[in-house]
Amino acid sequence: MRRHKKILVLLMTFAVIFGACLAQGCGGNSAEEDDTAEAEAVLEGTWRGGIDFSTVINEQLSDSLGTEIEDVSGAILYYDLALDEDGTWALGLAESDTLAVLETYVEGVGDWLVSYLYDYAEELGYSNEDYDALIQNEGYDDLTAYVKEMMQDSLTAEDILSYFDDLFDAAEGVFKYEDGKIWLAETGNDYDDEAYFTYEVSSDELTITGAVGDTLLLDPEDDVYPLKMARE
Which residues contact 207 (CB under 8 A, 6 or more apart)? Predict the structure, then answer.
């Protein structure tokens, strides 16, 4: 009976940790015209990119749970960056594509948790069938069903996505570029010559290779570079 209680307490602890971690924001934080019309045509357009923050979430959950989450990936934030011919830019969330991959990520976390709990129960002398029987006494078909419901209550794709709402508030302004550098600003009077992104561009790919100074959206120390985007 003591071991039964220990497993049930562990299940409840996981539920609380997932909810608390999410509440704290796991997964957490963003020239003159070029010399030729050809260069303008290459850079201007709409670019689709994505930032994989699986490692950030996994590390925070691992710290909270006291064990390393392994082989769970795919928490990617997809966005569209529009660089228009009139010199304006806008950043928007590709919500449907992002939700699709986040749902897969959350399922992966759930699968990992089921495997982890089965292994933990085995260390206590329980088989998978024994564990499922214990869970059935709590009103669930098996451990997988329990974890699925727990995840729906504490860690969903929509919940993760909600933490990025502020990133796309008023994410627009003006831009200019020159010699492999691009400046983003809210208005034409806000340009800082010492704050810019470096980039490389081809007909179908834009790569932000780094940042200098206090740029909009991302900082030089952010671990996202090179940031690759494909032309839409």
Answer: 199, 200, 201, 226, 227, 228, 229
CA-to-CA separations, 42 to 37, 62, 96, 159, 223, in angstroms, rounded: 9, 43, 27, 37, 26
Predicted confidence (pLDDT) per residue in 186-217, tens digit? 988 889 999 999 999 998 999 999 999 988 77
Q: What is the pTM of this model?
A: 0.74
Within 8 A by CB and 6+ apart from 108, the residues are 71, 72, 73, 74
CB contact at 8 A, 230 and 48: yes
Q: Which of 105, 106, 78, 104 has the alpha carbon at shortest distance from 92?
A: 78
Amino acid, res. 121? A
Tokens of 220: 């030089």
What stretch of H or E contains 172?
A: strand 172-178
Q: How far apart are CA 94 and CA 78, in angstroms?
A: 5
Q: Could you tell me the two tokens for 140?
A: 């669930």
Cβ–Cβ contacts within 10 Å for residue 138, how many? 9
Query: Cα separation of 170 and 97, whole Å?
Result: 21
What confidence tens digit (pLDDT) does each residue in 129-152 have?
Answer: 988 998 899 899 999 999 999 888
